[in-house]
Amino acid sequence: MKTIDVLLAEHPFFQGMAPGYLEFIAGCGRNVQFEPGRYIHREGQEANEFYAIRHGKVALEIFVPGRGPTTLQTLDEGDVFGWSWIFPPYKWVFDARAVELTRAVAFDGVCLRTKCEGDAQLGYDFMKRFAQMVAKRLDAVRLQLLDVYGTVERR
Amino acid sequence: MAEAPTGVQTPASAARHAAQRPPAGLLPASFRVTSRRRETRDTFTLELVPVDGGPEIRFEPGQFNMLYVLGVGEVPISISGDPGRPSTLVHTVRSVGAVTRALCALRKGDVVGVRGPFGSAWPVDAAAGHDVLVVAGGIGIAPVRPILHRVLAQRARYGRVVLLYGARTPADLLYTRDLEHWRSRLDAEVQVTVDSADRTWRGNVGTVATLIGRAPIDAEQATAFVCGPEVMMRFVAIALQQRGMAGRQIFLSLERNMTCAVGLCGHCQLGPYFVCKDGPVFDLPRVRPFLTVREM
Ligand SMILES: Cc1cc2nc3c(=O)[nH]c(=O)nc-3n(C[C@H](O)[C@H](O)[C@H](O)COP(=O)(O)OP(=O)(O)OC[C@H]3O[C@@H](n4cnc5c(N)ncnc54)[C@H](O)[C@@H]3O)c2cc1C
Q1: What is the pTM of this model?
Q2: Is residue B200 within 8 angstroms of chain A, CB to CB?
Q3: Are A74 and A130 in contact (CB under 8 A)?
Q4: Which atom of ligand 1 is nearest to the CA of B257?
Q5: DSSP state of A78
Q6: Ligand 1 centroid to B99 CA: how many Å?
Q7: What is the pLDDT of residues B188-222, one digit of tens each?
Q8: By Cβ atoms counted within 10 A, which residue in B23, B45, B128, B138 is the most buried?
Q9: Rounded distance between C-alpha atoms, residue B245 and residue B224, angstroms
């Protein structure tokens, strides 16, 4: 079986990260698997982890009163999710549910935070990757919000 | 100079007649509706055949016709059927205003005026030997469906064939039977995504541009055919270039309001181009400067 640092080296989020750092943060990760339909975390729960998806599909959902659970976005192999562990109050903002059998590396947020704070260079590298991912996700969500497939009012 | 006897054409009278006759492509032919299928809440697919066995319309993928509803008006609508079966004309129409509403309300047996085919085609033949990536959003699936018909009919000529299709919700997906059929083939990849969905939807949620990073194509040599709202196409073009595709490998179909469809009236002018005759299909380098320009 592949060790966590090898799995991370194959994951797009960690591409180009120095091997020494991969080994260092691999100590915070473990292999996890979620059956289809299973909730990985629920809104409001304590956010202790973040996940690098190796295989499968995860839906980020929010419960809309009167409409029920609504999927905001799905994430697949090569994506990561969960950034609520970085900042207080460390609570999940959405539900995350496995749509298909999903395999991921789950990272312990406290362990990661400690390592990032102890090594500013690692912390910077890590935060740059997160910032890039968050910006990309934000662009995508903005486009989604535009409702581009709706009809346009003629001027 | 004396006028030539009636029925004898001199060069001068021929020229005068030609000036009185409407330019080629301005007269509609009558077609009868043989089938009308509801695709979604606001979108219908019409099948048309020439009235009284008139000539069929042969077309290339990407071309459009002007459809004319008597007493209401005329609009450009892409041909969305199989170019290998030109005996029936297929158009998918989304009801957004007076003319498209009238088209969607047509019944079997009704007659509609058709002018065409007009416009440039997707360079499907030139893509032979390479991977084909089709990216469609909303009603933009209609102008690209003939690409899939053509490519899948000549499957061995192409590399990998991938369709990425985005819609507003699962209920807004068009051609669900075709999607199922293409998905069931082992030699084509179909990825569908919607902007929002409830839990019964097991597919992707997110914009179609997010699917491009994972599309199984060789970006260096693939050809991409993109059709959808212009904002979507802008983001898709960015994502394709981030994947390593050059502008000349990317083709877009632009929809600008048009009236004559034969390059006379100037309604659809986009910089130096007329969308109706130079387009609607353009390669990215030609239209990049205009993609952010508002309709004039
Ligand atoms: C080359 C080309 C191919 C086309 N192919 C198709 C097709 O296959 N199927 C199809 O349903 N439509 C297609 N269209 C768009 C179609 O021509 C327009 O929807 C139609 O002209 C609208 O006319 P209307 O009288 O129904 O509405 P209008 O009264 O002219 O407009 C009503 C409302 O619809 C909006 N609207 C108008 N045009 C568009 C548009 N292009 N996109 C989004 N909103 C619009 C207006 O802003 C307005 O709010 C195509 C357009 C072009 C230029």
Answers
A1: 0.86
A2: no
A3: no
A4: 53
A5: T
A6: 9
A7: 999 999 998 988 898 999 999 999 999 999 999 99
A8: B138
A9: 9
The first and second tokens of residue B81, run together, are 């059927």
* Rounded Cα distance, A154 and B256, in Å: 12
Backbone angles phi, psi at A88, to 5 degrees: -60, 150
Q: Which fold has domain B29-118?
A: Elongation Factor Tu (Ef-tu); domain 3 (2.40.30)
A106 contact B CB<8A = no
Q: What are B218's two structure tokens?
A: 């060789």
Residues of B in Cβ contact (< 8 Å) with A151 = 96
Residue B293's contacts (CB-CB under 8 Å, 6 or more residues apart) are: B270, B271
Q: Is B228 helix (H, G, I), strand (E, B) or coil?
A: coil
Choose the CATH number for B125-253 among 3.40.50.10770, 3.40.1190.10, 3.40.50.80, 3.40.50.620.
3.40.50.80
Per-residue pLDDT of A11-37, as tens digits, reads 999 999 998 999 999 999 999 999 999
Global ipTM: 0.82
Tokens of B103: 């088209």
B99 touches chain A (CB under 8 A): no
